[in-house]
Design goal:
The chain has 639 residues and is of the alpha/beta class. Among the domains are: 202 residues, Rossmann fold (3-Layer(aba) Sandwich), CATH 3.40.50; 157 residues, Rossmann fold; 59 residues, no CATH class. 40% of the residues lie in helices and 14% in strands. It has 25 helices and 20 strands. The strands form four sheets. A seven-stranded parallel sheet has the order 3-4-2-5-6-1-7, with helices on both faces. Helix 2 runs parallel beside helix 3 and helix 3 packs across helix 4. It is elongated. It binds adenosine monophosphate (AMP).
């Protein structure tokens, strides 16, 4: 279906063309033709990321009379950030129309907003509190309002705007159309629909209360005292993470962010104790990808509307299940994949079951990666960084004789070992004595894999297009790890790591993906080879299992892999080109905030720096200092 078929004006179609929107999203397909009609009360159950802003924004600007000076459209949304975002989007949609959009929200000078409204506003986008203020001051005329859009209605009600919303709806003409959008449908939202709408057309993208299909929900069971250490491991295991960590209180938010920042992670807090200016600054940095990890409370993160967030980490579960929907919905936007990771203690399994039931989704039991796995990921990143770095021949030419003389007595292997050690010793030392953080350790391992197997059976196993998926007859029990499998394949075939994709190591078998064109070579060369005394046999798997929850037979091979775990670390490392976040990021990892911001030349792993205790501290357990990750600074320029 095309936008042309939906019935939009040519001026609106023109702006869509400029914007580069090629085809309407499912909610747009369903909503737009209806909202263009005369009587159009509407309920849209959709999360952010589905294209809902355009679903109401396009018909809204389309329906408003050109040159209208008194508001005909009113959009109410929960936060200032969302308010600015929506008004910006509406202005773009209305670029070729004479429709004036004014945003009004709290925390800034009300008089300026009053002036803007006086000068003429066809559409007002407002947060409820500020709009009420303007109504009480009689600074806004609502008698010509034809359309009231309530965006993120559930969030507004959660935030205590129930009375304001009622008052606003009461202040507008009876014959108006109400378009309500909400991710969930709690009783309070249903009440608004009952009281203020006549026979609304309801569109639901996915089931009611259901989570976005593109989100992998994974929970980890840890002891209370290990929560923080576990979060660090999850970050270290996903060096290219662009993530949002949710905490329950402002205090916890501040303390987690502070600890992370001190230990060299590029992290900052966002909570209600910050001034509006501070919050704006943090949001801006996060939006621009100058900031890699945002640690936030539920309230502060409301309305945070950013694409490409790869991971949401729930430091704690929220008290309210609805909040979990909002939290996890911050990732996997606009058709992308994302992971929502949850840390729970041994008594919180029931909460996971409750969320699963309410959201009609399934959680996977995850295993906090161990030190070796993390070191492998980080090492892989380092290797990829070195391989893909641009060598500035002209700049280093003058130094080459000195450099070569310095390494004169070393073989190539020795030089590599020294360089890797210079960068990596600290990391290895740090994790050397790090124990198992899984509270269900022992039993947990098997359970985790079993759960993943079940899940894959149900969902189907997706092989990346252009890739063939191989089953490998050995696994973790045989001492195999991702690095080992990569080496095995590359050594046997003469291919390089760029030809190999996702690797899943299971207890007694494994999988990997490689470019289709190399399948014959791989089959011929790897079959019958030897890995640390174990004969290795491989075969091509069928990419889709028969499904239906069947775990016997085929389930073992086709359904046995677990997704996500390795993707985060490896995709960004230069081999898959950052496929996951769609940003094409090759080397977008981070090195720790303070280094990045200094901007000067970096002495990566230089001896003088490593020698001192400084920020990274000496080798300690998880609770203490932490070595840096590798890779370019994390910002949009690396995209
Ligand atoms: P929303 O759900 O309104 O927050 O939109 C999520 C993202 O999808 C935003 O970045 C929009 O610009 C983008 N988007 C919305 N509709 C389309 C479309 N039809 N084609 C491409 N991108 C879209």
């Amino acid at each position: 279906m095309t936008f042309e078929e939906l019935g939009l004006k040519s001026e609106v179609l023109k702006s869509l063309k400029e914007l580069g929107f090629e085809a309407p999203t499912p909610i747009q397909q369903k909503a737009i033709p209806y909202l263009l009609g005369a009587n159009s009360d509407f309920v849209g159950l959709a999360q952010t990321g589905t294209g809902k802003t355009a679903a109401f924004g396009l018909p809204l600007v389309n329906n408003i009379e050109n040159h209208a000076k008194t508001p005909q459209g009113l959009v109410i949304c929960p936060t200032r950030e969302l308010c600015l975002q929506i008004s910006k989007d509406l202005e773009i949609y209305a670029k070729f129309l004479k429709v004036k959009v004014v945003a009004v929200y709290g925390g800034t000078d009300i008089r300026r907003q009053m002036t803007e409204i006086r000068q003429g506003a066809s559409i007002i986008v407002a947060t409820p509190g500020r709009l009420m203020d303007l109504i009480n001051r009689k600074a806004v005329q609502l008698h010509e309002v034809e359309y009231v859009v309530l965006d993120e209605a559930d969030e507004m009600l959660n935030m205590g705007f129930k009375e304001d919303i009622d008052s606003i709806l009461e202040s507008t003409p009876d014959h108006k159309n109400v378009w309500l959008f909400s991710a969930t449908m709690p009783a309070e939202v249903a009440r608004i629909s009952k009281n203020y709408m006549t026979d609304p057309f309801e569109v639901s993208i996915g089931h009611k209360n259901q989570s976005n299909e593109n989100i992998d929900h994974i929970y980890y069971v840890v002891k209370e005292k290990d929560r923080y250490a576990a979060v660090k491991r999850l970050i270290d295991f996903n060096p290219d993470i662009y993530g949002l960590i949710f905490c329950r209180t402002r205090q916890e938010t501040g303390s987690v962010a502070e600890k992370l920042a001190k230990e060299g992670y590029n992290a900052e807090p966002l909570h209600g104790d910050l001034s509006q200016a501070q919050r704006d600054r943090v949001m801006e940095r996060f939006r621009n990808k100058d900031l890699q990890i945002l640690v936030a409370t539920d309230v502060a993160a409301r309305g945070l509307d950013i694409d490409n967030i790869t991971h949401v980490i729930n430091y704690n579960l929220p008290d309210d299940i609805e909040n979990y929907t909002h939290r996890s919905g911050r990732t996997a936007r606009a058709g992308k994949k994302g992971e929502s990771l949850v840390l729970i203690n041994t008594r919180e399994h029931g909460k996971i079951r409750a969320i699963e039931k309410q959201m009609r989704t399934t959680f996977t039991a995850g295993i906090i990666p161990n030190a070796k796995e993390i070191c492998e990921i980080q090492l892989m990143k380092l290797i990829n960084k070195v391989i893909s770095i641009d060598v500035r021949e002209r700049d280093i030419q003058t130094f080459m004789p000195t450099i070569m003389a310095g390494f004169e007595d070393m073989s190539k292997e020795e030089v590599i070992k020294h360089f890797v050690s210079a960068e990596f010793n600290r990391f290895i030392e740090y994790y050397e004595r790090a124990g198992d953080l899984n509270a269900t350790s022992g039993k947990g391992d098997d359970r985790g894999f079993e759960d993943r197997t079940k899940r894959r059976d149900r969902k189907g196993d997706e092989t990346e297009s252009g890739k063939t998926r191989f089953f490998v007859s050995i696994g973790r029990r045989d001492g195999l790890n991702p690095g080992g499998l990569l080496r095995l394949v590359c050594d046997a075939t003469g291919l390089n790591s760029a030809n190999v994709g996702r690797i899943d190591i299971m207890t007694s078998y494994s999988f990997f993906e490689a470019d289709n064109e190399h399948s014959d070579n791989i089959l011929k060369s790897v079959n019958g080879s030897n890995y640390e005394g174990h004969e290795v046999n491989i075969e091509i798997t069928k990419s889709k299992p028969s499904g239906g929850g069947n775990r016997g037979g085929g389930g073992r091979r086709d359904g046995g892999s677990f997704g996500g775990k390795f993707r985060g670390g490896r995709d960004g490392g230069g081999r898959d080109g950052g496929g996951r976040d769609g940003g094409g990021r090759r080397d977008g990892g981070f090195r720790g905030g303070s280094d990045d911001r200094r901007g000067g030349p970096k002495r990566d792993g230089g001896s003088s720096r490593d020698g001192g205790p400084k920020r990274d501290g000496g080798p300690k357990k998880d609770g203490g200092g932490r070595p840096r990750s590798f890779g370019k600074p994390f910002n949009k320029k690396s995209n």
